[in-house]
Every structure is written in C-alpha cells, then in structure tokens.
Amino acid sequence: MVIPGILISAATFPGVIVHELAHQLFCRWFRIPVFQVVYFQFASPVGYVLHERTTKTHQTILISVGPFLINSILGFLISFTAAWQLIFDQANALDYLLIYLGVSIGAHAFPSTGDASAMWESIKQGGAHPIVKVLVAPIVGFIYLGALGSFFWLDVIYGVAVALWFPRWVVEVFA
Amino acid sequence: MDSTEKTNVDPVPDDHAEGDQAVSDANQPAEDESLCKNCKEREYRAGFLTPLCVECREAFTRFPIPRWLTFFGIALLLVVIVTAYRIPTIVSCGIDLARADKAMEARKYRTAQKLLVTVQHSYPENIETNGKMLVACVKNMDMQTAIENYVKIESKTFKNDHLLSQINSAMSHLESILPPDSLVVLRIEAAKDSVSQLLAVFFSLNKTEGIEYASAGFTIASYLYALEDYDDAEVVVKSVLEVHSDHDFARLLLCAIKRQQGDLTSATEIGFRMLNENLENVSVLAQFAKIEMKRGDDVKAAKYVDQAMKLGEGSIEALEVRGMLDYLSGDERSSRAMVQKIRSMESSSSDGHVSARLENMINGVTKYR
Known about the structure:
The structure holds 2 protein chains of 2 kinds.
Chain A: H1 5-11, H2 13-29, E1 34-38, E2 48-51, H3 57-87, H4 93-107, H5 113-125, H6 130-149, H7 154-173
Antiparallel strand pairs in A: 1-2
Helix pairs in contact in A: 1-2, 2-3, 2-4, 3-4, 3-5, 3-7, 4-7, 5-6
Chain B: H1 54-61, H2 67-83, H3 87-105, H4 109-122, H5 127-139, H6 143-153, H7 161-177, H8 182-191, H9 195-204, H10 211-226, H11 230-243, H12 248-260, H13 264-277, H14 282-295, H15 298-312, H16 316-328, H17 332-345, H18 354-362
Helix pairs in contact in B: 3-4, 4-5, 5-6, 5-7, 8-9, 9-10, 10-11, 10-12, 11-12, 12-13, 12-14, 13-14, 14-15, 14-16, 15-16, 16-17, 16-18, 17-18
C-alpha cells in the first residue's frame, strides 16, 4: 500500500524531531557551527539541519549516522518496559504511548539519502585516504538501500523491531 | 516515505543572497574579506571553511535547543525513570520465560514448570505463560495444575501457532483423563473390589466413544492393578491405548503392570519411550527406581529416587519410592513417616492407593521382592 511519505512522517513526527536533534547534538559535540534547524515541517524534507561542512571524515560520518545511533538507542530505552508490559498482557495507556514513541523514533533512525550524499561528498572533496573511501562506501550503500527499503516499509519495520522485538531479544540473550 | 534530509552545506545564513558556494570561495570581491560573514564587525578566525569570528562561531556551535523540546525531553525522561521500577521484575520474568522456552525445547518440562510458576506469580493473567504452563503440566502429568491453567486460557486467542498446536495436543491429553460419565463412574465404584464385576463393566463399554471409553477403561485398569490382577489389567489398559495411544497414565500403568509381572525389560522400554518425551518425568523416574529395586540393584534405584525427589520435590511418586527404598534398606521408621506424609497428600492425587501399597509392603502384607 502506497501512502504518501509526508503522512507517515507526520504520524511519526517524534522520530523526525529526534532525528534532527541527533544531527544537531553531534554537531554540537564536534563544535561544528549549526546555522538552522527545522525539527519538523509539512514539506520535503520534513526536517533538516544546516551546518558547516567539516573537513574531518570521522566527524562527517558520525554526524550523518548519528541519528541511527541516537534514534535506535532512545527508541529502545523508551519502549523497553512498555514492550514487556505488552508481552505480559499488562500494557496500559502510558505503555502504548511509550511504544508509539519508541516505534516513531526507531522508524526515523535511518540516515537519509541527503546524509549519505553529504558523507560521500565530504570524503570526495576532502581527498580522503582510499581506505576511508572503502570503509565509507558500504555505509553509503546501506543508507541508499535503506531509503529504497523504506518504500517497502523497512524503516517502520525497523522502528517496530527497535521498540518491540529488541527488548525481548536483549533479555532472552541472558536466559 | 519522504525521508528527512540534512543539508550539509557551507553556511547559508538566511540573510545571505549569494547562496551556498559564495562563502567558501576565496575570490569573492566587494565585501571586506577579512570580516566575519555573520556579524561583519569582527575579523573571522582562519582555519575553517566558514569565515566566522570567534564569538559568532561559538554562538553557532551552541545553536539553541528550543525550550519546548527540552521540556518534552525532561518529561519523557521522568516517565521513563518512573516506569523503570518495573525493570527488575521484567528482566527476571523475561529471563525465566526464555529459560522455560529453552527447557521445553529440551523436553525438560519440570524445569519449565518451575520457571513458569515464578513468571505467573508476577503476571498471573499472561496468556502465553498460562498456555505454556498447561503444556508443561500435562507433560508432567500434573493434571490438577493443568486444569487450573486451562480455565485461565479458556476462550483466549493465541497468535503463536506453534504454542496453539501444543496446547491443543495437551488439551487432548487432558480430556482423556477427565472422569468418565457419572453413571459409569458409579458402576465402576460399585465394582471396584471385584475383578469379575470390573471386567463386566469394562466389556459393557462402547469402544467407539473414544475418550469416554479410554477414561473409564483406565479407571477400571487401575482398580484391577490394585487388586493385583495384572493380566486382566494389562488387557484393559492395552485396549485403552488402542483408542488413545498417548494416554500417559495408561502407559505408565502398563509399565507398572509389566514390572509386577516380572517383565522388567518391557517395563523399562515403555519407561524410556515416555522419558524420551519428557526427560524430567518424575513418574517414570519413580517407575525406574521401582524396577531397579525389583532387580535388587538398590544403588541404581537410589539414583533414580534422588533424581525423582530433586525434580518432583513433594510429588507422591517420589515420596513413595523414597519410602520403599528406606524400607528395603532397613529404615522402617522413615518409611512409615513417608506413609503418613503420602496419606495427607493423597486426596489430590490421581493414584489414591499409594499409602496403602507402601503400608502393605512395610507390614509384610505384600512382598516386593
């Protein structure tokens, strides 16, 4: 079923906000000037962060993939107890809210194609070592695959996995 | 989905007309190239792609996070912290549930049952736990607990097809040991002290009634066994198994019959087949202990008794073989104490003759070997 992406993003807007916040935080941590942040808008893109380009490849990579880390971890932590309450048939309204937040935040963990092209441009223009290009290329590839997969709801599936499946899997690892 | 994008450019301050490429181009004319591109008051700090002075760079580095977002984040953090009190129970029960799953996969249903009890203590209404408990209880031949759990899951929906299939199989076992028709029960009770009357009742049963037939037949076979008519008991129990081959109580009774008939090899074979389905079947371990006692190998019997006691804890079968071994090893006092203990538990057991059997053995009425 094809649903306009903007509607999906609107329904999961907390994830968009956290995604942009993650970019902003990584810029802040690397002391990269940020000139504009739009956490959410009903337009394409639904959010963005305008910042200075950095010459350091590792900073570029981390700024680009930062949302994947932050959104995944945050989505997992927020919904951990709620997911288990659902498993044990004891979820209440607050738990469903936490699960919604977890799924929304997890669903926007994937870096965007804009992030990928920014990463690629950075290492191209920055004259990065060939080994760095070899390491970064798969990441860029995965991001584009992820973007393609979002057409098949892969990002939402990931969000559900982060919020509902990972909490169960993490505990079962200790069993 | 319209993915969010991050624009990673050389700075485009809102009031800048030239666009992305202008700022980092060193050959731009007209403006004083040494001034900060933002405030245009101070000199820019060299070494960066964007010509900004120290103060402006610092300000942009600490681009503010909106207050509403900060408050929302704090509120969310508080909610997560407040709900964190559930974590210890969740982790503990989650681990127990996962371990119970592994135990069931490994056919260790006693272990599974113990683990599921702790989960049920915290989450008594959880359908998945109650369903698995039903399966484990039936495998452990703990029918009373199985029925309690059946009541909990009656008319509930299961999304897990594998679990549902296990529950349906367990239900089939459960139905086979439910008491038969009340009129048949009365007839069997009236005949319980007479072999011929019991057989008369048995032969009047309709084999096509399936579960009813199996249930009544098993009851009759149990009474025949108690009357020590092992040959007729064998005929009846085999007829039950023809109708319901998975009737665990009937199989166990056949194992006991073979043991009493002296056919220890057949008894052992039946036991091993049952043990293969549930590695922690206390009833079967107790049977093995009795078989070894019959053989005269009390050392081996003691190992089975220990296993049964460890797994079964307060189960009547484990206590019975403990009592038997105590008597055969000369500790009559402990054996008699076991009789008392068993008698107090017998009302809830499927085998109401255990204490009498053990007492007869201690008093010399029956000779075990």
